[in-house]
Amino acid sequence: MKPKVAFYWCASCGGCEEAVLDLAEDVLPVLEAVDIVFWPVALDFKEHDVEAMADASIDVAFVNGAVRTTEQLRMARLMRRKSRFVVGFGACAQQGGIPGLSNLTTAAATMQEAYGEGTKPQTNCPVNGYALDLPTLFDTVLPLDRAIPVDYNVPGCPPSPKIIAAALQAFLSGTLPEPGSVLAPDRAMCEECPRTDSHPNELRLEHFHRVPEIVIDPEMCILAQGVPCLGPSTRAGCGARCINGNMPCTGCFGPTSKVRDYGAKALCSIASVMGCNDPAEIDAALEEIADPAGTFYRYSLASSFLERKRMEI
Amino acid sequence: MPEDFEPRIVAFFCNWCTYLAADLAGTSRIKYLPNAEVVRVMCSGRIDVQFVLKAFAKGADGVLIGGCHPGDCHYQEGNYKCLRRFRLVQRLLKQMGIEQERLRLEWISAAEGDRVRVVINDMVQTLKRLGPAPKLVEQAADLTEVNA
Amino acid sequence: MATQTAVPTKRRITIDPITRLEGHGRIEIFLDDAGHVERAFFQVPELRGFEKFVQGRQAEDMPQITSRICGVCPMAHHMASTKALDGLYQTPPPPAARKIRELVYHTFMTEDHALHFYFLGGPDFVVGPRAPAAERNILGVIARVGKETAGRVIAMRRKLRELIAIAAGKAIHPVFGVPGGVAKALNAEQAGQFRAVAEEAVEFARFSLDIFDKAVLSNSAYVDLICSDAFTHKTYYMGMVDDRNRVAFYDGALRVVGPDGKECARFRPEQYADYIEEHAEPWTYMKFCHLKTPGWNGLADGPESGIYSVAPLARLNVSDGMATPLAQEAYQRYFATLGGKPVHHTLANHWARLIEMLYAAERMRELAADPEIADPRVRTIPTHAPREGVGVVEAPRGTLIHHYRSDGRGIVTKATLIVATQHNAGRIALSVEKAARSLISGPVVDEGVLNMVEMAFRAYDPCLGCATHALPGSIPLAVCVHGRDGAVVATLRRDADGSVHRE
Amino acid sequence: MSENNGSNGAVRIGVYTCHCGANIAATVDVKAVAEYARSLPNVAVSREYKYMCSDPGQDLIRQDIRDHQLNRVVVASCSPHLHEHTFRTALKVGGLNPFFFHMVNIREQASWVHENKIHATRKAKDLVRAAVRRVARHEALERGRVAIHPDVLVVGGGIAGIHAALTLANAGKHVFLVEREATIGGHMAKFDKTFPTLDCAACILTPKMSAVRAHPNITLWTYAEVTQVDGFVGSYKVTVNRRPRYVDEDLCAGCLDCIEACVYKQAKVPDEFNMNLGKRKPIYVPFPQAVPLVPVIDPETCIQFKSGKCKKTCVDACGERHAINLRAEAKQETIEVGTVILSTGFQTFDAARTPEYGYGVHPNVYTALEVERLVNASGPTNGEVVMRDGKTPGAVGIIHCVGSRDERTNRWCSRVCCMYSLKLAHLIKEHTGAEIFNFYIDMRTPGKGFEEFYQKLLSERVHFVRGRVAEVTDWALQPSEEGKLVIQVEDTLAGFVRRIPVDMVVLATGLEPHADAQEVRRMFNITCAREGFFLERHPKLAPVNTFTDGIFLAGCCQGPKDIPDTVAQAGAAAAEAMALIDAGYVETEPNTAHVMEEVCAGCKTCIPMCPYHAISFMLDIHKSHINEALCKGCGTCVAACPAGAIKQNLFDDDEIFEEIEGILTNA
Q1: Residues D289-320: pLDDT tens digits?
Q2: Helices B49-57 and A262-272 sit at what angle, rounded to 10 degrees?
Q3: Which of A100-104, C465-469, D362-366 has the least mean pLDDT?
Q4: What is the pTM of this model?
Q5: Does the beta-carbon distance from A307 to B57 stay under 8 Å?
Q6: ipTM of this predicted complex?
Q7: Is pLDDT above 70 for D553?
Q8: Is the Cβ of A123 closer than 8 Å to some Cβ of chain B?
Q9: Which of C7, C38, C207, D183 could form a disulfide with D290 if both were Cys (CB 3.0 to 4.6 A apart)?
Q10: What would the DSSP string read from start to end of C314-356?
Q11: Residue B1 included in any domain
Q12: Residue B35's domain is classified under what CATH number?
């Protein structure tokens, strides 16, 4: 009997689904090998169909997107209950992703920004006699594993075809690593970076550069050029896609298993390779890292130790 | 803020300078406030920014880093690595809504036992003025809303 | 849930996992005592909040951050954002960089239009609106056009997306856009790959138009359907045109024509705020865009209502022609067939889309053949302090506006993002209500009705992915029919595979 | 013996809270702490005991390891710097790997620094909780061994350095003795007699000096300075800069004809060795018994160097030997040694910093060291105590504690001034029969024969006035004061202010660290105490050790002391060095870092982090590698590794995170 597979999405952009489609011809054999019991984007099964299933009757559920609304949380819990394995699929599920940057602000401030002083959407709004409702937003975006227990994660924004295929294969062949693992190499991206050899042995940066200021040499290690590249902090598996686009790694694959807080560690190592000792020189150099939170926690703020900005909510 | 608020400080002291200074303060019976609890590391260069943020995440009201004076590092340059990380993480803390005074870096040599007193007492006063570090409670509210 | 306590349990019936999962595109229909549609609502129930949390970010990070608004058309956001940075830093890209951007962008337009026609919009026509629901999906299309053609579609799309990855790093969430240029030059070999695939793409687009000819235009029933009143709205239209008022995707002026097809505005993208504004309703997170003149007069069409639409239908309506020969032929035939400009038939979007696909492919071919495309000079280093910038492109689904302000260090202080589906929101609501009104009478609602309603909806290819997560056009609808008392008379659902369910 | 590496079975922790007599128990509720520890997870045993470091205390641990199958131990007592080694040894003896141990410092960091028992106890509990969580993550470790290079560097050729060098050399160790001045001997060489025995300094020192010169195991470099020190215990790489003396030590026979032949017929240059009370020539030996007895040419004053127009009579005088080389240049010597003894000595307090005593204003105000030269038979006056005006003083005032025990200058007691003041009083009286007045704050004679010497002076009718002198002035208020220096002082015994006219004033200047002590300390990577003297590892348990393994202290660079103490300390330092050398190796802390190759992606971030070049990049497998022998365990690379691919023994992330959470997890 084919393994039962479910796909589900929370707060995400749809890129993870596109990434699955991008397997193109390759996805077909995989899809034939499994029995997809739930895929809102493509198939007609509804919540009560899932409710009706026996607990743990779905073999594996791939869930992408962060958890940001009560419904997403409720559905995530449902998937958890019905599935033997839940796999966080993509950066948003694993780390909160870019929507996690909302943790630098609040739902109220977000509404204010969008609608100003005028009419604001109401979660419960009678419109001339008709009762309509809208869901509520959390102030804090949660990575999937802070909403429900997650067995595995497939990293990336979006995950690369290579590791998607590998992950599906791992489930089909039952060759699974220990629970809690991230289904990608447990080494930093430099390993697969074509420029890694151009990183000098004794790198000491006196200055940092922001992208607009510098023409990035397409052959040389980007960090060595003074542009904060997070490849050294970031898990491999993407195939150095951004580097091949001649842009620095921004860390969508998250940390290795040895690092607890991606951004803190990335920040720590970037600061370590600085050359200057004088506080004034250090500060001058750091001026070029104008947005540490957005630079080091681009995808991982919601999964960081601090989780969100401390503020009145 | 409650009147009796006692700030909790996690202090990372390097083995060769600041930790010895604390020992000296002890042997000299110098009295200071009991709010700081010390984690000993061999060098301030060992202090990972993760440690600092973990401390804040776990409810520390302040984090104190003590290392050898510039030029005096037992390991030559570890304290400069520490300084660079400190300057950068300060910028991050600001964005995360954590007052920069809550993280403090002090050079205290093995001879400066009294400096330990001055720094810790002063930091405690600062933290009492700032009040407890804002804790992460709001998200729990989100979750309970769903469970309701 | 909070809302449950506020309103009796009947509301829960409308809360359907499908609509929930998609999170979006919920439709609520309320009937009067006579069982006629009194009111229908199209709701978008989520707010992504990008405009807020991008404040404080480095401006140069915006193209990569905002592409995460939508994983379906990330290139559109990436490009609009990159152009906004050009403006922010007052640094136009060097010629090669501009051409590389255009080349990649037209590659993307070709690929995205293909996706919609074959995977999403196609079934309605290729298979047929009245075909059994179970067949009315991509598999049905494959059955009709043959496996070999299907394979061609998949392969074409893959090649196009691989090209995008070569130039932009990634097809999903590209990285190559930087203020005043692109991060990476194309080498001669890569330009060659583009040329080769462009040839194929042109052929592929023509072939797709042929399929449309055979499957749709040769079928008078379909043509009647397209032209039927249920799918017709006389609204304003907006789209981007070049200096000769031909359809433009990457750059140009914004042109607005009225229900009568006459130009009533033509302005530079950065002036958008002088012409359009957003209107909020308490029952949806989606903001409705409308023209400042005549202004917001509720959900109505006609010259008195500021509601307008964008996307292929609109783009063809606002333009005087296409900039490439083959597309121009198709353009003329299109208006000849549909009775001249403007075309108000929502379903004509599908045809217009294919014409645009042909244009995109032809444009791709031109650009790939341009020797300057391989010029290594692809960056201009900004010398001005950043201040404010507006970037506008035509996304597959219509005009996309990114507008940033920053401080002197290039830290974003304010961002306004207007996505295609917001321009269309008013007209989508109209279409849904009109389809409902004209098709539903009495509580008996059958599948046909539902499919008609969805066709109206899907024709816009509403990339709710930009404000929601749904793949374009595949919005499974839940229609809840309420009696006067508000009690639900019926809930029907039309899902992506075309099947319909009554509950 | 077979050692439990802890891998077997569940974690079983023994927690031991020490009273340290009342040191801890007075301020920390030790019972409560032990009680609390018992409630913590994985804790199998929790005890409190009067003195954990005592044998019975250690036996407790050893016993419990056996009886309760403990595989982790926490001791809450004093600073790990004091007893970590003690308890680790106890574990080892108990059959447990010594690194399954963590020490909690509730004395220096709780009981001694806090007053409120509730707070101190709460803090102690927090720290114990943190340690219990931490120690559970500890792993079995082995100490590394570093071979000790048998050669020793002794820096400073005063009596301390001389004695240490000879002791080592006699034991067959090769010693490099480096002295900044042109001769060894240091301050002691300037003294006439030594207290309290009054035996002649030269008689006891000069034989040792020539013994150094003669000793086959000693390489003596005078007129030389250490300029660079690399490496660590066992193998220090040291660079020595030998300044040119322009007279070749190997060729010179010490006939001193060159000095005689100098175009300067009369010595015209102030003679530093004689505190500028005498004169020397541009080519000179500091004093007749100098070692090496090789002249130095002072380029500042030599005509040849200043104008190039000298007849170079010295060169002619040297003749066939060609020992004089006016073109000589500085020589850099690089040596490797396993251990270092610092005996860099002290400088005397600059009397000008106490202007009220008129030094430099009134010609007849002298420092003690100047008087040492005056009373010295080989001094500028051949032992005659005559003042600058040539007169012999009839009354002399000796002012104690100049630059000692003084809030405005140096706060410490210089330990030797009382005794040398008595000595000088005796000598001056002996030489001149003058009336001697000692002005003292307290008379400190805490040494063998010291008090007796004081009594002897009293019997010699030397006057003693207790009181800190207010000023020394030549402003006469009455005829008897005309032409005299008047010492104004409050006699705190008599209880009134006295004005005592004298002819000569001697300032008993104190001892202080060398001006460049800080540079030296940095070079050798050791610590200075607050006042600037080099800091010993422990005042009682390791008085000649520093915090840097293999570097030892002897003499006044560690603090003021007299000759007997200095020599004793020099012997001790030599013994410590020998202990290392004869052991042949030193056991290192296993707190080194290592790369987890399966995680390392070869990003090279770690490589510039290491000040010891312990990290290399292995091109074949494209990963970093840490040479554990070179790693000093600072952990900087561990924090810097962006992938978390480097572990540090004893300070691994797992351990430190547990400690942090432990502290902040309120029970």
Answers
A1: 999 999 999 999 999 999 999 999 999 999 89
A2: 150
A3: C465-469
A4: 0.87
A5: yes
A6: 0.90
A7: yes
A8: no
A9: D183
A10: HHHHH-SB-SSHHHHHHHHHHHHHHTSSPP-BGGGHHHHHHHH
A11: no
A12: 3.40.50
